[in-house]
Amino acid sequence: MTTLKLLLLPGDGIGPEVMAEVEKVAAAVAEGGEARFEFERGLVGGCAYDAHGKAISESDMALAKAADAVLFGAVGGPKWDPVPYDVRPEAGLLRLRKDLGLFANLRPAICYPALADASSLKREVVEGLDIMIVRELTGGVYFGEPKEIRDLGNGQKRGIDTQVYDTYEIERIARVAFDLARKRRNKVTSGEKRNVMKTGVLWHEVVTAVHAREFKDVTLEHQLADALAMQLVRWPKQFDVIVTDNLFGDVLSDIAAMLTGSLGMLPSASLGEADAVTGKRRALYEPVHGSAPDIAGKGLANPIAMIGSLAMAMRYSFGLGATADRIEAAIARTLAAGLRTADIRGDARSVVSTAQMGDSIVAEYRKGA
Ligand code: IPM
Ligand code: MG
Asked: Rounded to an integer, what distance in angstroms lies between the CA atom of residue 37 and that of residue 346?
């Protein structure tokens, strides 16, 4: 059995609390002999700024590059609002994504049957929902230059962000989406704003061409991103895989999270290009939720998105699909047994703490798939 090198970057706010539960689950996986882990730990976000004035240090970046996978908690909080823009907590996450080349962000939104009533949408709209948002993660307006606030010298300033996409960036994310669709329900919906944006025109053209060249067997449809947002709350079960750019993907995945009951439920995988020789991809796994500073340190956070991110690491980085299934089954059984953290409380009479939720998932995991 090979040893899997994981770098844990718990970050700020509820990050450390939910990461502690992941460590329990990983210990149970190791105990069962399914994998052996070697953990490194590092700082990212506000805590890294406090320690060394940067959102991530060079040595932690080096650990991230050397790891088989990075597990990331969350970053940010009001404490760091006054910090200069370049070293704000989020800069650590963005640097990890960019420097590791993690262009493909997979955000699965699954509505566990036990949680259909926790969503703000009607049960029939979300029950059985299983969609995958594929978000482009290293391009677009997040990284485009120029990106600045210019002083116009007449008492006015100009804020500038640049939305930019090259053909190859759209091609590779489209391929990820089509490949995933083939293993699912074989449908891809591509979202852009070609009615307003040149990047949208190119996005539409390139996705259409990749489809015609390589993926004719997959159903492709295009929706304008605003209409897609509307359809996502109107009838989300029409979707299988959604592929979209960095910014639209950010917004649409928060919407998708609420379909599942809570932002506390959504895991994600951020993957790089597969190595031509080894087939290995750089990878980072993180919950879609943020650092939730308002509830940090109170044992209220839902650890399921973070634990689900570990399951995704098993599946996408280590080829341990059965282990991933077993973790996800443990989550489903824990929910079916009625355990609820505050965010997915619904009509539940009592709620459990972060640690109780983690312990229960570990206990269910030990029972097997
Ligand atoms: C996300 C987050 C990040 C993003 C922030 C924390 C920079 O909202 O992963 O969705 O905007 O990508
Ligand atoms: Mg977001």
From this structure: 36
Domain 1-105+266-369 and domain 130-259 have a common topology: yes
Nearest to 192 by CA among 127, 147, 141, 151: 141
In this structure, are strands 241-244 and 219-224 parallel, antiparallel, or unpaired?
unpaired
Q: Evaluate whether 7 touches 63 at the Cβ level (below 8 Å).
A: yes
Q: Residue 253 in contact with residue 228, Cβ under 8 Å?
A: no
Is residue 339 predicted with pLDDT exceeding 90? yes
Say how many Å lie between the CA of residue 253 and the centre of ligand 2: 7
Q: pLDDT at position 13, please?
A: 98
State yes or no: is 193 an active-site residue: yes
Question: Which is higher by pLDDT, 326 or 115?
Answer: 326
Concerning whether 226 is annotated as a catalytic residue, the answer is yes
> What are the extents of the domains in the chain?
1-105+266-369, 130-259
- Does residue 117 carry a catalytic annotation? no
Quick one: pLDDT at residue 279? 86
What's the rounded mean pLDDT across residues 113-124? 88
Among 88, 106, 250, residue to substitute to test ligand 1 (most atoms within 8 Å of Cβ)? 250
The dotted CATH code for 130-259 is 3.40.718.10
CATH number at 1-105+266-369: 3.40.718.10
Whether the pLDDT of residue 368 is over 90: the answer is no
Cα distance between residue 177 and residue 133, in whole Å: 9
Looking at 49, 112, 142, 365, which residue is catalytic? 142
For ligand 1, say whether the CB of 12 is within 6 Å of any of its atoms. no
Give the C-alpha separation, 283 to 313, whole Å. Answer: 8
What's this model's pTM, rounded to 2 decimal places? 0.96
